[in-house]
Design goal:
By secondary structure, the chain is mainly alpha-helical. The protein contains four helices and two strands, in the order H-H-E-E-H-H. Strands 1-2 form a two-stranded antiparallel sheet. The chain is elongated and about 65 Å long. It starts with a helix and ends in a 7-residue tail after the last helix.
Length: about 140
């Protein structure tokens, strides 16, 4: 049975292939399908590790143990020995993870994607770096 990382990488490559094929029908310019799929295969382990790192540093759930008066343990919450275990969402950690991922993580991912796909297409290094530095946030009209 493949590891979660291998499963996530294969799923990502398949979804990238599907979305690129759909894009060929929706856009006038064909996307670089092979480069996108290869980039997805390289980028997924990095993103997977990033998410695991965030979860280790900022756990999304906290475990609370509660003593039971009777020896009957609720279904799905067995802590053993008459103790129930409840998982509660840690809202602060979850919001912090979202904020970090959508700021720092997004900047790094976009830069790697823009430069990486072009590099996989065989474009020169200066062009890959130029496209990354030219990216600007859209200005609202």
């Amino acid at each position: 049975m493949p590891s979660p990382l291998v499963k996530a990488t294969l799923q990502s490559a398949f979804l990238t292939l599907c979305s690129a094929l759909v894009a060929t029908f929706l856009t006038p310019k064909d996307p670089p399908i092979v480069a996108l799929v290869i980039f997805s295969i390289f980028a997924t382990p990095l993103n997977f590790s990033w998410q695991q790192y965030l979860e280790r540093k900022l756990p999304g759930y906290r475990v609370e143990k509660h003593e039971e008066a009777n020896s009957q343990v609720k279904a799905g919450t067995s802590g053993g020995g008459g103790v129930t275990v409840k998982r509660r969402l840690n809202v602060i950690n979850t919001l912090t993870k979202v904020a970090i991922d959508q700021t720092l993580g997004a900047v790094v991912n976009v830069a790697l994607h823009l430069g990486g796909v072009r590099a996989l297409q065989g474009r020169p290094l200066h062009e890959c770096l130029q496209v990354v530095t030219e990216v600007r946030e859209p200005v609202p009209s």
